[in-house]
């Protein structure tokens, strides 16, 4: 397992999460800004793609049924994303 690549993918997800939070806050006060809404949707789709690729290779990012898991990878394997 390439930890450097795993760390880089997590970093990309965190960067997109930051952008999504900022756009979400902006859209709370500017709901009619179509450009911001398009940006939000684009980043949301990008995040979904990156998260799916990460989970396919390294296992679930979240629990409570928000991430799929496959045998044999996942539950008993580390590091967990927050341990990197």
UniProtKB/TrEMBL annotation:
InterPro entries, A to Z: CotJB_dom, Spore_coat_assembly_CotJB
Superkingdom in the source lineage: Bacteria
Positions of the Protein CotJB domain: 8-83
Pfam families xrefs: CotJB
Keywords: Capsid protein, Virion
Protein name: Spore coat protein JB
The species this protein was found in: Laceyella tengchongensis
Organismal lineage: Bacteria, Bacillati, Bacillota, Bacilli, Bacillales
């Amino acid at each position: 397992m390439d930890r450097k690549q795993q760390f880089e993918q997590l970093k990309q997800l965190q960067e997109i999460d930051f952008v999504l939070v900022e756009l979400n806050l902006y859209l709370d006060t500017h709901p009619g800004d179509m450009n911001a809404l398009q940006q939000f949707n684009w980043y949301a789709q990008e995040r979904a793609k990156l998260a799916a690729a990460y989970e396919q290779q390294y296992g679930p990012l979240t629990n409570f049924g928000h991430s799929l898991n496959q045998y044999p990878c996942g539950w008993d394997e580390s590091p967990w994303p927050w341990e990197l």
